[in-house]
Amino acid sequence: MSDPVRTVLAHSPELMVVRFAFRAGDQGALHSHPHVQSTYVQSGRYRFTVDGREFQVGPGDAFVIPSNAVHGCTCLEGGVLIDSFTPRRDDFL
Q1: Cα separations (Å) of 5 from 12, 51, 68?
Q2: Is residue 5 within 8 Å of residue 79, measured between CB atoms?
């Protein structure tokens, strides 16, 4: 198990787009942040937890994580997530 590989694709003060490459077994630890996050599953399968609710997603799925929601994921099949954050996550720069 390892951390996903993060690549910032584009950003402005109002918006940031980030690519996360996961291998099977990688985890995004439970966390929260003040940013609204939109996640698009480019490839792979993932089990997400958002504020205690668990669900699985796969290619083509997309969802929004509200500001300050506790969330995280486990990668079931390796792939790529594309996340957008508003405003920009300066901690990723």
Answers
A1: 21, 24, 23
A2: no
Distance (Å, whole) CA 51 – CA 20: 21
H or E segment to which residue 16 belongs: strand 15-22
pLDDT tens string 23-42: 999 999 999 999 999 999 99
Which pTM does this prediction carry? 0.95
Classify residue 67 by burial, with Cβ atoms within 10 Å: 0-12, 13-18, 19+.
exposed
CA distance 47 to 30: 12
Set out the domains of the chain in order of their start, with CATH numbers: 5-88 (2.60.120.10)
